[in-house]
Amino acid sequence: MAASLMAEKTDDRKPEAAPAAAGNVYECDAVSLELFPHGEPRLIIDRLSLNVRAGEFLTVVGSSGTGKSTLLRLLGGLVPASSGTIRFRGSIVSGAPSDVVVVFQDYSNALLQWRSVARNVALGIEGKLDRTEIEARVRQALQMVGLEKNASDHPWQLSGGMQQRVQIARALALKPQVMLMDEPFGALDAMTKATLQDEVLKVHGQTGTSFVFITHDIEEAVYLGDRAVVLAGPPGRVYKTVEIALPRPRDQIRTRQSPEFLHYRAEIHAAVLSAGGH
Amino acid sequence: MRRESFNLPGAVTFIAAIAIWELAVRSGAVSFDYLPAPSAIALAFVGIVRSGELFTATLHTLRSILIGWVLACLIGGVLGVVFGLSGFARRWFLASLEVLRPLPAIAFLPVALLLFNFSLTTELVVMVYASIWPMFINTMGGIANVASRLHDVSLTLKLTPLQSLAKVLLPAAGPAILVGARLCLGTTLVLAIIAEMIGNPHGLGYAVVSALLAIQPEQMFAYVLFIGVLAIALNACLLLVARRLLPVYGREAMSDV
């Protein structure tokens, strides 16, 4: 293990020239992440290789401890890889790449409680665009998530589902090429979750944005995804990738009842179980 | 937050206490040589208002409180932000600062007097030295305790470090910073009075000492009570401004410390 890590490290210093293979927004090659939580090294992600295709909806499932959220932090440039390379549109990720936005699970921490909904949505574009453009973008983003009537409310006045919509709108206002979503509906009730799943799919259909969507809910992974990646761990690594050939648009009742859906669900469930983790 | 229109029982107790004091002095039940009755203090108060002494002294003290408070908030606030953000600064310099902090500012007064003579500078040095700390400690704590999630948000929305500070970190630490500013104001007032008694012969502190030396207890009491009212008024002003400026979280931050 140690030897292979060293090899990756020297690899890292090679000049970066490889052009992006056509159609991939992200290319991860043998990415490892080692952290030192109590002074002792702990391998969180182990030589993980993964591509994200342009425009696809990629879901990532795995038991807890398989490094799902860490993978997302790596892609979002919130934490640097210890070894291996992550390329976004062909260039190596160092720091948060522009055109990529992360949506976090804990919406109440991620929103600025002292700002109105509209000013929360404007946070990422303030000072970058002129005023009329900002207003137009905010209005459009709020419309996409159905919150145009709540622009002047404050986050603490809204339900959990609405607060998560605000965070999604804030990401959309930047018109990103890739949305990285870290178990965004994990804290919501089943009905709200279903509604938001359909809204995210609608946004995906309308904008052509690529999505990387972390979840521990296998049905959610099948319902949303073009592809589902099953992680094993710890340390996190890709266990299996499943192409999900369900027709779009998807429907909460019809899609979930179709034999293909049940087949994919069983396949991924079996993979998650045999991948282990805690 | 209490929003009662008028606290009748509280007012009754207050008036009764004054009346008992008046009676006790007049009847000779208490026999301090120099304890004036409330009515005598009120007369003395009218006297210092008429002569303009109160106005001049108050103006001086208010001015130095304002200068001292703004300076202390600025210095303490900037230091607090730096130490709140930088683990490096905390590791290297916080221990030395913690040695300085418990040193009583009063003990520092003779040093300042020696260096800066009887002057406004002496007064300000002592005031600012003492009142930097509540602002510094609260701001540092407020900034350091901002949820790590908000740092992630700044990164993923590509805010520059300066934007992140102005739009995310400072507002998030706002309640703690306001508490610091409020404690800072209290310390500034106390130290202004003490510094005027010893280090700078102007203002309300000096007026109290002068009345004492001139054996005018009525006047002295009038000044002392006025200083109390001034402290209450300054605190109320700060609360009012904070509630106006920060309607969302000003309330909880400004509830009584």
Per the CATH scheme, the topology name of chain B is: MetI-like fold
**Structural class label of chain B:** mainly alpha
Regions with little confidence, pLDDT below 50 for 5+ residues of chain A: 1-21
The total number of structural domains of chain B is 1
| Largest β sheet strand count, sense and barrel closure of chain B | none
CATH architecture of chain B: Orthogonal Bundle
Mean pLDDT of chain B: 86
Gross geometry of chain B = elongated
Assigned CATH superfamily of chain B: MetI-like
Question: Can you tell me the residue ranges of chain B where pLDDT is under 50 for at least 5 consecutive residues?
Answer: 250-257
Instruction: Sketch the topology of chain B as an H/E string, one letter per element.
Output: HHHHHHHHHHHH
What is the multimeric organization of the chains shown? heterodimer
Order of helices and strands of chain A: HEEEHEEEHHHHEHEHEEHH
Strand content of chain A: 15-25%
The shape of chain A, in one word, is: globular
Q: Strand fraction band of chain B?
A: under 5%
Helix coverage percent of residues of chain B?
over 70%
Can you describe what's shown?
Chain A is an alpha/beta fold. Chain A has 10 helices and 10 strands. In chain A, the strands form 2 sheets. Chain A has a 6-stranded mixed beta sheet, with helices on both faces. In chain A, strands 2-1-4-5 form a 4-stranded antiparallel beta sheet. In chain A, 42% of the residues are buried. Chain A has a domain at 108-175. Chain B has 257 residues and is mostly helical. Chain B has a single domain (37-254), classed as MetI-like fold, CATH 1.10.3720.10. Chain B contains 12 helices and no strands. Chain B has helices at 8-26, 38-51, 53-85, 87-100, 105-116, 120-144, 148-156, 161-172, 174-198, 203-213, 217-245, 250-254. In chain B, α3 crosses α4, α3 crosses α10 (203-213) and α5 (105-116) packs across α6. The model of chain B is unreliable at 250-257 (pLDDT under 50). The interface between A and B is medium-sized, with 24 and 19 residues.
